[in-house]
Every structure is written in structure tokens, then in C-alpha cells.
Specification:
The complex is a heterodimer. By secondary structure, chain A is α/β, with parallel strands linked by helices. In chain A, 35% of the residues lie in helices and 21% in strands. In chain A, strands 1, 2, 6, 7, 8, 9, 16 and 17 form an eight-stranded mixed β-sheet that branches. By secondary structure, chain B is α+β, with helices and mostly antiparallel strands. Chain B contains nine helices and seven strands; from the N terminus they run E-E-H-E-E-E-E-E-H-H-H-H-H-H-H-H. Chain B has a five-stranded mixed β-sheet. In chain B, strands 6-7 form a two-stranded antiparallel sheet. In chain B, helix 2 packs parallel to helix 6, helix 6 packs across helix 9 and helix 7 crosses helix 9. The longest helix of chain B is centred in the C-terminal third of the chain and has 15 residues. Chain B is elongated. The termini of chain B are far apart. The mean pLDDT of chain B is 96. Classes of the chains: A alpha/beta, B alpha+beta.
């Protein structure tokens, strides 16, 4: 059966929801989620959303813009950072007006706290810029927008996995989705499609990301011929729970938490003398691994301690209650009295589907692809450059989710319907048939585990040419094995076995795109650290990478960085 | 160590009736029940179906009955069941089973939606934020932890006797907006709560409170709303 909507949004996290609420009531919009919408991973964001409200101390959008650019190691497109930091203030008040329960100052204003890389006066000292609701800021924002979508009566397709994007003659015609509850494959006609499918941390062994974060939307764009931008920039968050990768928010350090090595030393004083533990995430993660490599991990092992014991029971209960409960549940420790074992965890992808400041996906010539849009973590507006600052992600979602929605609305006045090919579902149904009929192949789990380990060890915080080349060869081997995948479950009802296997097929080419981009960039910038090229090289590398794949061959091209206000300078904190 | 599981299996398309199947996996005491489920599914039996996503008690996907008690599989560890010879996993009670541990959530979300869980302002928005005191914000602090996992509703004995009861999760969301000092619908919200199948069927079993993975004082919140109705609507139902 063929369904029809003016606009389709893939992904019901904060970016998708914000775009959808912009379109609701004006055009026929539908939202797809491969999980129930309230399970989306925006809900796992803990620390807050950045905006220079100045509620706690003087602040300005220019300082916020500067921090975003410097945090991104000058790869950030400055026109985008300017939009973000200016619009942040309106965006946060808008969320408050929708009922988001932000914590409050004694004067009844939105409370704000410190966060990594956010400073006053262009780097002089930390500034309180993060607006928050305890340590569940993402969840309350997402719930608020989800029920706003319910109130507006937006059509939602829950537990529908989008399997194919139909682009015909360079223009969007619709998509193909798999209904998990029934196993049916449906084609959807549409004039405008927004990809808002979030991150893909599941490419790595240790990650704060959800099982659902497999990069499906990114893969669909890549497969449709869109070159992916800045894929080498993968953020490792410094404080994941040892072994599990479960996130301990940067808010823990924003509220005064301190990192300590085996000697109990506050080692960040040596790496970032001005803002210490509140340095950006890439620097802190490298510092942790450097301590570990030099033998100062706890008991000489691969973790250090996060010390919150001086914050006191009250502050932990009021402002960091979720993370306190994670520490109790998963480690059996009490953050009031115990040190928390942490290690860096794969957290956020700076790269993604290239999009302009209106959320329009752009092709190799930097021209918009008619009817195709991207927002949120899967997109790359070159906002976060080589490293994203904490609290700029939730902000990105609501600022650029809204802008994408506005642009779609505007474009829908002109965008025509494109006829779907008669066999639009065929590629998807063939794939499902092949996987179900193969009785002698290999299960997905083993290949997925090998991929996650390979990415973690050879394409993680520290990279070298030889490690990346090894990773590329490894991915090739895994792709060969994946040609013979099988599923155990041949049923139609909730065949999660089948969907997880399809997701692995999405993950492999994305892993290759990341590694190929990382191999190409022979410098160290932000989260991309090459031990064989440990310096930033602006002369050659102050440019964005674009990776594409044609006829099985991966190639890399480049496009310039937009610099408006801040000339690149050495990055010290 | 080897851990033994007994898991409820039912595919309404293929099976006449539900059955329990046993599995054994090797797991560390500090591993999650969800890790064990994944190991079973990925290495032994891909036909097993359950929901999961964040794996750390934030998304609310993997509510199920573990040894008879509603809980999140990602929030319970193997060592929590050290005394059990076999860990029994079943779908949330009261809910209709779609496959194995996956239940129909549409009806659950419809109940929550019926409480109008969104902000309806008393006045047009000011230029900046609506002012709210620290104390007024505190009133919402417990209930905004809700992740809509449905453990409370699955555990509630009243749901089984009275399927029209809106259920504890919906009431948590009603509380969240009833006591939002910025909301302008207090009267209408109280009227809704005073309907026969809103707060009144609750008779203080406290099962919701006992199982809530986010430690929300659910029953206490429901009782507080009952008192509020009695105070504000003197001719109230009870």
C-alpha cells in the first residue's frame, strides 16, 4: 500500500519533534520512529542547554559564539555558530513557554550552571550558561515537545524503520518503511523529507549511545549519493562509567566535580590551567588517556576517578540525582562518599549529512537537493566543527530543527509531487527475502562486535595511519562476511532480529566513511587526534572533508570553512 | 557464572498459547539482565523479541516482569537475583502481548494523553521566562523523573479489576501539570481528575511506588491530588 503525506520526518527525537511542531496544522506532516517516540535518544541528554541568558552572571552571545568556534578547534562555520548563539536565547524562552521545567534561581529565573568550554570574556574564566532541569534536561525537553506534538495531532508512525529513501531525478519522491509490528513494507509518497535520526555511537564498543543509534538516516543519504561531511570527528565524552560507557554528565564537573589519577592528583590543572576540569571534552578525554598511558590510571588500569564527594548529599540529590542513581545501580557505589571509576565513552558525531543554515541537504556542488532536509546529530551544518561543546547539542536540535521546519514549509509552496517508481519497495523486500532465506550464513552479532572493537581500538581517541589502515582492511573483511548474513527469525511480528541485521548493513559503510576520512586528514584537530601528525595544520587542513562512495570506491573531497569574526588561534584553555 | 532464565514466549501468529522456554547464559554478577537477554538473542535464539534502547533506565523501553516484579531489564543486575535458581522473565501484566516480552503500548499512551499532559498557560508568554519560585519548581521534581516505562501500570492490582481505571502513570503526568505553578488549567484538570476512573479507584496498594524504577512517590502523589479535589471541589465524588 502507498501512503502519502506532504512532509515526512524520520526520527522523533528533539530535532524531528521541533521541526514537526513547526509544520503541524499547516501541511500534512507525519513522523517516523523506529522506537516509540518517547524512547528517542535526545532523552538521554543530561546536563542542559546553553544560552547566554545572563541569569546568574553577565554573559553575551558573542562569548558563546567564540566558545563554540574555539571549542570546535576553528573548523566551525562561524555564520552557523552566530545563528546558534544569538537564537539560543529565544529558543530557551520558547521551551520555557511550552512548560519545560527548568531549575530556578532564587529570583524565579531559569537557573544556569557551568559547563565545559563555556567561558566569559573570550576564554577568561568559566561562565554559568547551561540552563538545566536537574540532570534530565533532554528527557523533559523531549517529553514536552512530544506531548506538544500529541496536542497538535501530528500523525506518528511508531516502530517503523525507514529502509530506503526514494530520490528520483535528483529530487525526493518518498521513502520505504518496515512496520515492526506486522513485518509489512510500505511506500510513502512525499514532497519533503527531513532526516533527523540522531547519532551512531553504536559503531564503537564503549558508548553512551542507545542500541537504536545505528546511523540509519545517514546511511540512507550516503546510499542516495550524498557525500558525508567531517566524518572523522567523533567525540569521546570523558566521563563514562568504566566498562559500561553509561554517561556521567559533564554537569558533575560543572557543579564542581574533579578528575583524579591514581595519586589523587587533580591532573587537569596540568592540561588546562585556566579552566581545568571544565576544558572541552576532546582535551579532557585525551588527558585521561595520557594519564593512563603514563601509568597513572587507578591501580595502573585503564580508568581514572571522578570525585564528587565534596559536593555534599544535598547538591547531588537536587542537581545530579539521575547520575547518582546510575552510580548506585551499576557500580554499587555511593557518590556522596565514593570515587567514581570513569573512562572516555563514544558520545557524539560532529560529522554527518551536509546541510545549509536552512537545514537543506546539499550536494557536492553545495546546492540544495530539492525536498531533502537534515537536522540534529545526523546532520553536519559545520556548527560543532572538530569538537562539540556540551549543552550545544540540545540547542542545535531546537534551533536548527525549527529552521528546517520553517524552510520545509516555505519550500512546500513550490515543491511538486514526484511519481514513485512502481517497484519502490523492491530493493527492501528483496533484502528481507535474502536474509530470511539464507539458512547457512552468519549471525549479525559476531560481525557487529568485531566492528565495534575495531573502531574503538583503531579509530578512537588516538589514531595513526597504520591503525586506520588496519581498520579499513578489517571493515573490508567484515563486509565480505556480511554478504552472507542470516537471521534466525523468519516471522513477521516484531522481527527485531531482522531489523538489527539490516542495521549492521547500515553501520559498515558508515564505519568505512569515518576511517577513510580520518586517514585522509593528516593533522590533529579537535576530537581527531593523529599521533603521527600531532599538530593542527591550518595551512593545509582548515577545510571540511566530504566522503562519498561510487561504484564501491570511496573518495574524499573538501570544502572551505566560513570564517567571519574569529581568526584561528592556537587553542589553549 | 552460568545464569538460567525461563522466558515467556508467545507469537500470536504462530502459537496456540504462550509457553515458557529455558535458556542458560554465562554472565558476570554486575551485568544487566538486558545484557543476558541480548546474549540469548544474539548467540542462541534470534526469534526472542523484547524492546530496548538506552540500556540505562532513561528511555523506558524494557519494562517487563522479572521474577514476578515489574522492572526495567537494563536496571536490574544479575547479582540482584543471586538467590534465584532461575530468573523468570514475563511481559508486563495487564497489557496485551504482541510478541514474547513486547506488549501493546498504544492504549497506555492513550491513557496518559487523556490527562492532557501538556502546558496550557494562564497568560500570554512574557518577554523572558514565566517566573517560578524554587519551591514551586520543587513540587514537580519527583514526577518529572517519569520515563513512561509502564512498570507502575503493569504492577497496579486495580488495573486488573477495573480496566477503565486510567492508571498510575497517567496520574503522575496529571500531577506534573496540576502542580505546575505556570499552568492555567487547574480547575479543568481537577475536574478531569475527579471523574470516576481517574484518582478515585486507587486504594493504596502502593505497588506502583514499590516498582517505579525512577523512585517516584506515585501513591503519595495520587493521594495528594485526592485531597486537593476534596478541598477545591467540596461536592467531589468521595
Amino acid at each position: 500500500m502507498v501512503f502519502k503525506h506532504d512532509a515526512l520526518i524520520i526520527g522523533s527525537g528533539l530535532a524531528g519533534l521541533r521541526a514537526a511542531t513547526e509544520l503541524a496544522g499547516k501541511v500534512d506532516v507525519a513522523l517516523f520512529s523506529k522506537v516509540y517516540p518517547t524512547r528517542s535518544h535526545s532523552g538521554a541528554a543530561q546536563g542542559g542547554i546553553a544560552a547566554a541568558l545572563g541569569n546568574e552572571e553577565p554573559d553575551s552571545w558573542e562569548w558563546h559564539m567564540f566558545d563554540t568556534v574555539k571549542g570546535g578547534d576553528y573548523l566551525t562555520d562561524q555564520n552557523i555558530a552566530e545563528i546558534l548563539s544569538k537564537d539560543a536565547i529565544r529558543a530557551v524562552y520558547e521551551l520555557e513557554h511550552l512548560g519545560v521545567p527548568f531549575n530556578r534561581t532564587p529570583e524565579g529565573k531559569i537557573a544556569q550552571r557551568n559547563f565545559g568550554g563555556h567561558t566569559r570574556d573570550f576564554g577568561k574564566a568559566p561562565v554559568k550558561r547551561a540552563c538545566y532541569a536537574a540532570d534530565r534536561s533532554g528527557r523533559v525537553m523531549m517529553d514536552t515537545l512530544y506531548f506538544e506534538a500529541v496536542k497538535k495531532g501530528i500523525k506518528i508512525y511508531p516502530e517503523f524503520s525507514v529502509m530506503d529513501l526514494i530520490v528520483k531525478d535528483g529530487r525526493v519522491a518518498g521513502l520505504v518503511a518496515y512496520e515492526l509490528a506486522t513485518g509489512e513494507v510500505h511506500a510513502f509518497r512525499s514532497r519533503a523529507v527531513l532526516i533527523a535520526t540522531g547519532g551512531y555511537g553504536k559503531l564503537f564498543k564503549v558508548t553512551s549511545n542507545a542500541h537504536a543509534n545505528t546511523g540509519d538516516g545517514l546511511y540512507l543519504a550516503y546510499k542516495a549519493g550524498i557525500a558525508l561531511e567531517d566524518m572523522e570527528f567523533v567525540q569521546f565524552h570523558p566521563t563514562g562509567i568504566q566498562g559500561l560507557g553509561v554517561l556521567i554528565s559533564e554537569a558533575a564537573r560543572g557543579e564542581g566535580g574533579i578528575l583524579r589519577n591514581r595519586e589523587g592528583e587533580r591532573f587537569m590543572e596540568r592540561y588546562a590551567p585556566t579552566i581545568k576540569d571544565l576544558a572541552p571534552r576532546d582535551m579532557v578525554s585525551r588527558a585521561i588517556y595520557t594519564e593512563i598511558r603514563e601509568g597513572r590510571g587507578i591501580n595502573g588500569e585503564d580508568y581514572v576517578h571522578l570525585d564528587l564527594t565534596h559536593l555534599g548529599e544535598k547538591k547531588l540529590a537536587e542537581k545530579l540525582s539521575d547520575i547518582s542513581s546510575f552510580v548506585r545501580i551499576y557500580l554499587g557505589l555511593n557518590p556522596v562518599t565514593d570515587l567514581i571509576p570513569i573512562q572516555p565513552t563514544c558520545h557524539y558525531m560532529m560529522g554527518g549529512i551536509p546541510a545549509n543554515l536552512h537545514g537543506q541537504v546539499t550536494d557536492a556542488g553545495n546546492n540544495p537537493v530539492p525536498g531533502l532536509y537534515a537536522a540534529g546529530e545526523c546532520s553536519c551544518l559545520s556548527l560543532h566543527g572538530a569538537n562539540r561543546l556540551g549543552c550545544n547539542s540540545l540547542l542545535d536540535l531546537v534551533v536548527f530543527g525549527r529552521r528546517a521546519g520553517m524552510q520545509m514549509l516555505d519550500d512546500l509552496g513550490r515543491l511538486p509531487w514526484t511519481e514513485l517508481p512502481a517497484d519502490a519497495e523492491k530493493e527492501t523486500t528483496d533484502l528481507i527475502k535474502r536474509l530470511k532465506e539464507n539458512r547457512n550464513g552468519e549471525r549479525a552479532a559476531g560481525i557487529r562486535r568485531s566492528l565495534q572493537e575495531l573502531m574503538m581500538f583503531d579509530c578512537g581517541v588516538f589514531r595513526t595511519a597504520s591503525g586506520l589502515e588496519k581498520a579499513l582492511r578489517g571493515i573490508k573483511d567484515l563486509e565480505a562476511r556480511a554478504a552472507n548474513l542470516r537471521v534466525d527469525s523468519t516471522g513477521t511480528r516484531y522481527n527485531t532480529d531482522l531489523i538489527e541485521t539490516v542495521e549492521l548493513l547500515h553501520m559498515l559503510p558508515l564505519a568505512e566513511a569515518i576511517v577513510a576520512s580520518a586517514l585522509s586528514r593528516t593533522e590533529s584537530r579537535g576530537a581527531h587526534w593523529r599521533e603521527d601528525y600531532p599538530e593542527r595544520n591550518d595551512e593545509t587542513w582548515l577545510k571540511h572533508s566530504l566522503v562519498s562512495k561510487e561504484n564501491g570506491r570511496v573518495s574524499i573531497s573538501f570544502k572551505p570553512v566560513t570564517i567571519t569574526r574569529f581568526e584561528p588561534k592556537p587553542r589553549a584553555y | 557464572m552460568q545464569v538460567r532464565f525461563k522466558i515467556y514466549r508467545f507469537d500470536p501468529d504462530l502459537d496456540q498459547e504462550p509457553a515458557y522456554r529455558s535458556y542458560s547464559v554465562s554472565a558476570m554478577p554486575e551485568e544487566r539482565i538486558l545484557d543476558c537477554l541480548n546474549r540469548i538473542k544474539w548467540e542462541q535464539d534470534g526469534t526472542l523479541a523484547y524492546r530496548m534502547s538506552c540500556a540505562h533506565g532513561v528511555c523506558g523501553s524494557d519494562g517487563m516482569r522479572i521474577n514476578g516484579v515489574c522492572a526495567l531489564a537494563c536496571q536490574k543486575l544479575v547479582r540482584d537475583y543471586a538467590d534465584s535458581e532461575e530468573i523468570m522473565l514475563e511481559p508486563l501484566p495487564f497489557f496485551q502481548v504482541r510478541k514474547d516480552l513486547i506488549v501493546d503500548m498504544d492504549d497506555f499512551f492513550a491513557r496518559v494523553d487523556s490527562m492532557r499532559p501538556y502546558f496550557i498557560a494562564a497568560s500570554p508568554p512574557p518577554e523572558k521566562e514565566y517566573p517560578q519560585s524554587v519551591e514551586a519548581h520543587k513540587k514537580q521534581e519527583d514526577v518529572i523523573r517519569c520515563i513512561l516505562c509502564a512498570c507502575c501500570t503493569g504492577a497496579c492490582p486495580v488495573m486488573r479489576e477495573n480496566p477503565d481505571y486510567v492508571g498510575p502513570a497517567a496520574l503522575v503526568w496529571a500531577y506534573r501539570y496540576l502542580y505546575d505553578s505556570r499552568d492555567g488549567q487547574t480547575g479543568q484538570r481537577l475536574e478531569r481528575l475527579n471523574e470516576p476512573n481517574s484518582v478515585w479507584p486507587c486504594v493504596n496498594h502502593f505497588e506502583c511506588t514499590r516498582v517505579c524504577p525512577k523512585e517516584i512517590p506515585v501513591t503519595k502523589s495520587i493521594n495528594e491530588m485526592k485531597r486537593e479535589i476534596k478541598k477545591q471541589i467540596p461536592e467531589s465524588a468521595k
